Amino acid sequence: MAVPLRRPVRIEPATRPSMLAALWGIVFAIPHIVWGLGWWQEALRFSLGLRVGPEEERVINDPGFILSSLWGVAALSLAACGIALSTVQPWGRRLPRWMPVAGAWGVALVLAIRGLVFPGILGGLAIEADLIPLGDDSDPAWNRWNIVLWSPWFLLGSVLFAGAARHAAIE
Length: 171
Description:
7 helices; globular
């Protein structure tokens, strides 16, 4: 007996920014969860941008760092996922409309600041131009990765969450 094929799930074009923003939050949470569990430490070391040495070891083994910077960021990323989904899911309509809109704009703003300024692309370029000193414990290669990989990732998230907020505001 043949099994009937189900139609693929179709994401409406208007909801794509929200769904992609939610996916962005999940994808960003995953490495932080993995690192919080103590796995894949070399990737964590690379993402931190510290020179190999005692300071790097101190940071990576600090329970405060693990709780706030790994588990805390994972929780915030998953909360951001929930905010993005609340702009398009039926359960999000139970909230006052301003809550998902303000939440999505807030996430977009935080990600834009991280992607542009802190340290962001502009901050990274200022470091490269020696306008801002790079910390003694920082790896200079990290700043270049920040400019070409990390900061654009945050800016992508900002654009997606802004799209989710815009969709929710005009709905």
